[in-house]
Amino acid sequence: MQSNTRWNNNLAFLLAATGSAVGLGNIWGFPYKAGENGGGLFVLLYIFFVILLGLPVFMAEVAIGKIGKKDPVSAMINTADKTNSTKNWRVVGYLGILSNLFIGGYYAVIAGLVINYGFISASGFIGKDPTVIYDTEISSFVEMTFWFLLFLALTGFVLARGIEKGIESSMRILMPTLFFLIILMVGYGAYRGDMSAALSYLFSWKAEQFSAATMQAAIGQAFFSLSIGMGTLMAFGYYMPKEQKVPGASSIVVTADTSVALLAGLAIFPLVFAFPFLDPNAGTELVFKTMSTAFAELGAIGQFVGPLFYLLLAVAALSSMISILEPSVLWVQERMPTTRTRATFIVIAICIILCLISVSGFNVLKDFKVGSLENPFEMMKYIADDFLLLLGGTGISAFVGWRLSKIIDMEKLGFKSKLLFSAWIFILRWVSPLFLMVIWVLGNLERIFFIKFF
Length: 454
Ligand code: PFF
Prior knowledge:
The protein is mainly alpha-helical.
């Protein structure tokens, strides 16, 4: 059931991969994690890990897709064949598909809440208590379900239309909109908010906060934000035009993603610091409770700025969600084989079941704990972000470093310098698997068994 399996041109890969990378992780996740983990120290560690580990593993994942030419599982089997390696490497592809579904299973729930907030903010927050609004919204299982279903319907619509008519053409609209909105928000923050307080919060040096947990947070955020480890980049590499260069294209996407994360901080914190009673350390509730209070304080203009802000978040979430489910749709479509529309239905149906479990973590099952994981939503997030993604990233890194590198034609992939190519392989062989595994083991011991070393 092959439809068109190529991007139309080089720009299409750049748009789609940037659309995937820039998402809730940048605008909802990065600012609060930077705030919680030592400001400038976290930002610097984050940039360091993006360059040292993120970019190399990102390129490795795209390379597997470009050389393996199929869905993530078949791409792993094909490349394993070409390098006389065991077919068991396909586990990396399966891990990717599993991560797709688990990430999708909580990502759509947050995105649904974002859309809901977009509508609430349009009717104005003035005179309403943000805590009451938030608690009321998340306490309703039915209402939260309605919003994530709406979001998944949009995602499914784009996915079912295919690579060119669906993903490529939607990214052509979504990406410029996103960049326009974020610049607008930073500009408004600078005009109305306290930019110097925001800059010092994000970039001032709190060295006393350096710890294993900070490093772990920075690496995890880097991998999540760059969409590494779950087959999305393999699928997008498969659709890449033959002549497109992997290192150049990857560097552009990684730079765009990091810039948007920093800009998101500069859009949010000036408004938070404009009102001294607001707490910048509100964690996951920062963009909901805290920002809605800021919009209320802005008066009538808040009724205009608020919806724009939530539109920005929704656009970022939609372009990422499409990419989160794409590898699974591709896999089902080629595995069965079936039509793209039917494959999309199957994947969205599984995602709905997982989202229902996540939603229950906000209300009906909010006290259902496993180990240190507070509720089913946290569990879903943990399985996806902390467990599966890092394992997938390690597998990709080790496979390309130790096996695929033997048959890679350096120039064909786009490397001009032998030195850079060797440095890339060295990092993939030794540095990233080691870092990722240590972080994975320490993190899991702490989260599940409460064993802490630092
Ligand atoms: N990078 C996205 C974000 O920052 O929100 C999330 C994501 C998309 C993760 C696609 C993984 C993925 F494959």
